[in-house]
Amino acid sequence: MPIRPRSILATDLDGTLLPLQDDPTHIADLQTLLENLQANDVQVLPVTGRDRAAMIEALQAFQIPAPEVAICDGGTTIVVRNDDGGFDYLPDFQTHLEANFASFATDDVSYLLRDLVDLRFRATEKQNQFKISYFAEAKTLQATVATIQSRLRDSGIDCDVISGFNLHWGEGLVDILPAGLSKAYALQWWLDRSGNDRDQVVFAGDGGNDLEVFLAGYRTIVVGNAEPEIASTVYAAHRTGNTLDRFYLSEARATSGVLEGCRWFELVPPEKRESRSSDPLGAVPVSCNATHFNIWAPYAGRLAIEKQNGDEIQRFRIQPDEDGYFHRTVRGIGGGDRYQISLDDRVSRPDPASRFQPQGVHGPSMVVDHRKYPWHDADYRGVAKSDLVIYEMHFGTFTSEGSYLAAIDRIEELVSLGITAVEVLPLAQCAGSRNWGYDGVQLYAATENYGTPDDFKRFVDACHAAGIAVILDVVYNHLGPEGNYLHDFGPYFSKRHHTPWGDAFNYDGENSEAARRFVIENAVYWLREYHLDGLRLDAVHFMFDDSDQPILRSIRHAVTDFAGTVDRPIHLIGEANIYDHALVSPTDGTAYDAIWADDIMHAIYSHTVPEINLAHRHYAGASDIEEALQHGYLHTGPKVTRIDSEVRRQMHAEGDFSFLPSLICGLQTHDCVGNHPHGSRFHHLTSTETQRAAIPLLMLYPSIPMIFMGEEYACDAPFMFFVDFGDPRLRRAVDRGRRNEYPHHQWKGAIAPSHDDAFANSKSIQIKDPAIWQWYRDLIALRKTWQKESLLDWKNLSVVCDPARSLFALQYQAPTGRPKFVVSRFSAPADELPPLSLQIDGEVLMQSSVHRDSPTQLTLQNQAVLIGEGTWNLAAGQ
């Protein structure tokens, strides 16, 4: 039997192998690490910026056994242990450097930098023939390094400048070496000389002087205290090189991070733990070559994991426990591997909790290691509920490319507009290449249509860097019709309840506990692994549950528990569309943070385009706008009921409208636009002037405002309903079903949802109106100003309307200063409304389609709006 090559842990010392500030956990983990490395005959090779004496001092201080060899002085010296236990410089390496870097002149470099006051020479023993070492002011380190590099470049001196921080003294460090000489160079030279191979090496480090080694192709441990930029650079290099299996980003810092990484790369044994059914569902990698699986499949007598190896398939049997969970850690499967679940040797299916489906809903699942992504949002503190200005978007149509990464390029535009949160349509894997997202069948898998899971993380990271929260739409009432294989695994679906779109989840029937867990765990999964700021639960009135602990309440508890572990607000939103007192009113901690409330929007539609009804509820035009603005809603749920004054008085004792800040209201949503046969937007059906007049009533209302993508610039493109099912029967059924659901609409010339053009024509990148974009921007800015003044409080609001004149006004009594008002006048564009004169005592802040007759008298035509400070009233005789 051939002898296995000896593994080598090459490791930086300060900030990596050495405990930070005598941390007791680090000290204990160092002892564990050293014992395990010795037991597994792993060679420890220090690769440090310290000189020989300082390295020996550090090893002795922490009782680290003397290594056989060490790379010191940032790669400019190599020392080997002698028979007396001391260390000698390796003369062969010195000779090699003199032959290959003879042109490096320390005196020339020192003279060039002599006047830089932020630089101080370190002690003589820190200098050598191939290294100049300085202390530098920590606060100006980056600028100092830039100056050094500029001078060296201008003088034609080819050097590498390596900078970092001394963790003990809090000072900057600058080393100047000949170009190309580094820790990585020295390590490779030693490997070649000793006859070792780079595949034997795992390198652990934390700082800038480790970067060359990180990028040299070794298996790499980046400890948790590394700067985010370092982690990102190393991650990006491995991702580009398709070598993420050789990259590990530790959660723990320094010594503990090295131990964690050594366990990952199996240099030392993993922590002992038993497999349990309570472990996370799906596939979770536990080392570079082992993954823990946990699948609930009570319908299966036998289950196996089928790993794809090219044309071959490896099978790994898993035995069930008494509750129908198949769980065990499988060696031979790691991150990036593709697999399917074999049920009774009869069919092979994707994992119900698959993290990624690179070949779509019918293809194999992929093991995803979420810990590899180097997040940059440690300082992000989220967006408060009161500051939310939500932008609803669909990744596939938000950009021409239709990808997570392409969407990053438009974040700056959203920031400029004033958006503070994006709400993205569902991302669970759907059939085909185009879908709104509500036909998802793999709830844990971010769809491959827009990129990889890490691509979505990069989008979230970029949003957080810009101060924008990310909220995800999730669907927990049904699964889509194609690729839904949960029926093969167990009773995930109800025998009693049904939705208009498919089988309802089994939240209250026999064996419902596991189905409930599947959904509850999914909610927390998205928040945790993708650093999301909230979830919007689709159509909550179809999440049927007659148990004593409704699923909506259980999700609320789980999300609340998770929110207690992070430093940002987590927003849990229910799509009720109408007012649901049970969702927003409880005082026992189970209230949702917000609900969608569409009554104001549909009332506006019924007044401006009365021939079109985009909801399954009746609205009566101007009078309903008045009532909806006065109370925030017209209908209650979960069973849709038009509320009367008596029920409202009982529900809101003493006129308590404290629920208003928990309503999300918009002029348009994906539903109201997409449910139109032609995907027509509000301004398509009315006019941009009508849109300008109506939107202030929502943007300056005490609720949470929401904009649907493209609305802000009166996008010329429609937003149609589109699907891409592979089954022709399903395509035909959907095409017919849309017409049957809204038979009263004008379908002549409408594009079928399954046609390619329904998606292609919906790209929101076509003709834009810059004037209305500026109007929206100014309104959002004004909203934020009024928020800071504590003006947008329901207690300050009075609604004054004259439905017969199509006049709708919001009046705010300011806590300090003069009152503020919004007066809008609009109806169907073809309506001929007589001019209406107003008297104002105050200042006009914003206006559209308003004629000033005198300093105090203004005339409002149809589609006009006046926003101001002070008081207003109708002119005499009106």
Descriptive overview:
- Helix 15 (512-529) packs parallel to helix 16, helix 18 (599-608) runs antiparallel to helix 19 (622-631) and helix 23 runs parallel beside helix 26.
- The protein is globular.
- The protein starts with 7 loop residues before the first strand and ends with a strand.
- It is built from 26 helices and 39 strands.
- The model has no long low-confidence stretch (mean pLDDT 94).
- The protein has an 8-stranded parallel beta barrel with strand order 21-22-25-28-29-30-33-34, surrounded by 4 helices. Strands 2-1-10-11-12 form a 5-stranded parallel beta sheet, sandwiched between helices.
- 29% of the residues lie in helices and 24% in strands.
Please write out the topology.
Elements: E1 8-11, H1 13-17, H2 24-39, E2 43-46, H3 52-61, E3 69-72, E4 77-81, E5 87-89, H4 91-100, H5 106-112, E6 119-121, E7 132-136, H6 141-154, E8 159-166, E9 171-178, H7 183-194, E10 201-205, H8 211-214, E11 219-222, H9 228-240, E12 247-249, H10 254-264, E13 282-287, E14 290-296, E15 303-309, E16 312-318, E17 325-331, E18 338-343, E19 347-349, E20 365-366, E21 390-393, H11 395-398, H12 404-408, H13 411-417, E22 421-424, E23 428-429, E24 442-446, H14 453-465, E25 469-474, E26 493-499, E27 502-505, H15 512-529, E28 534-537, H16 551-563, E29 571-577, H17 581-584, E30 594-597, H18 599-608, H19 622-631, E31 635-636, E32 641-642, H20 645-651, E33 663-666, H21 670-674, H22 682-685, H23 688-699, E34 704-708, H24 728-741, H25 756-760, H26 770-788, E35 797-802, E36 807-812, E37 820-825, E38 836-852, E39 857-874
Parallel strand pairs: 1-2, 1-10, 10-11, 11-12, 21-22, 21-34, 22-25, 25-28, 28-29, 29-30, 30-33, 33-34
Antiparallel strand pairs: 3-4, 4-5, 6-7, 7-9, 8-9, 13-14, 14-17, 15-16, 15-18, 18-19, 18-20, 23-24, 26-27, 31-32, 35-36, 36-37, 37-39, 38-39
Helix pairs in contact: 2-10, 15-16, 18-19, 23-26
